[in-house]
Amino acid sequence: MLVDEQLYTLNLRTFGWAEVSTIGYCPVGRLGACMNIVDDKLFLFGGMTMRHTLSPDFLFLDLDARSWMRPKARGEGPSPRESASSVIIGTKIVYFGGMDGKRLGDLYTFDTSDLTWSKVEIPAPSSQLERSLHTAVAVKSTMFVFGGWTNASPSNQSKFGAPWVCSNDGFSLNMGDF
Q1: 120, 147, 174, 175: least CB-packed within 10 angstroms?
Q2: Of the candidates 83, 85, 99, 45, the residue with the CA atom closest to the CA atom of residue 172
Q3: What is this structure's pTM?
Q4: Which H or E run contains 160?
């Protein structure tokens, strides 16, 4: 967990927190970032900083060396955002949605084996999928997405008075072909 530019770990036996010393570029504190562990690397993407700016950071922490690094990635990755979801399917980290001032419904993969970004075209109209602050989980090659803040339909907007609603819908994305 990143708090005020420090990395902490939780001991699950004692439930005590301990600061982890790292070297290299230290990411600033943020909320709504994505973190995933693949092999011996902790990947960090995006989030909103304490200054309310979206972070373009895409970094990893080598867990053995405790060193932060920027991967020399190929391809174009997602725009800076917060409150997206991410799951691991095979060697790929799959990033979905989030917010960059508007709700997003796009899908990207980062292949950790060759450090390549790819944008994945979603068959359904992405405007139906736009959301932030949702949750996602991977089961085999399928990403399941549930809930989050979504854009309100005109009837919901007039009913609740807000351009967004807290959703209770879900969908799945079969990533087997990607």
Answers
A1: 174
A2: 85
A3: 0.90
A4: helix 154-160
